Amino acid sequence: MSEQKNLIGLSREELAGEMAAIGEKPFRTKQLWHWMYNQGVTDFQAMSTLAKPLRDKLSELYVVRRPELSRVQTSVDGTRKWLLRFFDGNEAETVYIPEEDRGAVCVSSQVGCTLTCKFCHTGTQLLVRNLTAGEIVGQFMTARDSYEEWPSPSDGGRMISNIVLMGMGEPLFNYDNVAKALKIIMDGEGIAVSKRRITLSTSGVVPMIRRCGEELGVNLAVSLHAVTDEIRDRIMPINKKYPLAELMQALRDYPTNNARRITFEYIMLKGVNDSPADARRLIKLIDGIPAKFNLIPFNKWPGAEFECSDMRDIRHFSDLLFDAGYSAPIRQPRGTDILAACGQLKSDSERIRCSRLKARLEDGIVDDQHPLPVA
Questions:
Q1: Which residue of the set 24, 91, 93, 135 is catalytic?
Q2: pLDDT in tens, 43-76
């Protein structure tokens, strides 16, 4: 018998197609959708509104599978990080970031990353591949499993209230799978997370920003981190393709209002982007964009070439932005003891695997089953 097909990650239309293919009526799609995404059930035999013969047929042909848990770590501050293994053995990380009465799940969109931002640990890992819609949705469902948040809360969330696409990878370089996953997550009869509670973070893939706004309408966060093309070119190579003037114009065109502002992520790097002059240039740069800021103390990781700005300089930078009328809190680093903080995510097992493979190739040993990832 051929391998069973995983139903997680199929759109409603695709799920309906599967039901039609096995001779089932259209209403079965709605029933399955409810069991999988509203109730979080993974065993067809537990889907009590389905007749026993149908449950047996589904069990034979399909699975409702999450990514495999490779490792779970919980920080002293309550942050939790999952290293998830997918069907082909590749891995990515997902993080839950708790607040006082709620929390956000930070989801990855790629295995590795192609951006090579100089301050980011994830950027030191080569891009292996895009994640599928099912693998993206599966990360959030894994977090729900961990905190027993099934069925889907009707009030927007208990422990888990928000989703941020700020994990490994650039979401807009995997737009089709990300969009499909978010539409599943936002569906009101399933996981039912409102678009107001979803934030997509991009490093500035200008052509896709407009499409994201038109098709998804989720909150947008931009990894900015510099106020001149000269500095941004150096620390974020994507700026050479989409410079600041083009990026700012795309953001001015993004659907926003005073209640839904664009968040600018700004990592504070000592002597690089943290001067009062930088703050004043930043205010001028984003003029006309409904905006707020997230000032992020740089999280040191092994081999990093940067240092975190002095806290006194970060506070002064924040004060200048506040004085100009912008919200500019200093983000409290979370999960640093388990390398779960901003810019620290990296699949260490993938790094070890790549280094071993390179050593094998240097020794003349060809491994057709595990080719080197393409940058």
A1: 93
A2: 999 999 999 999 999 999 999 999 999 999 998 8
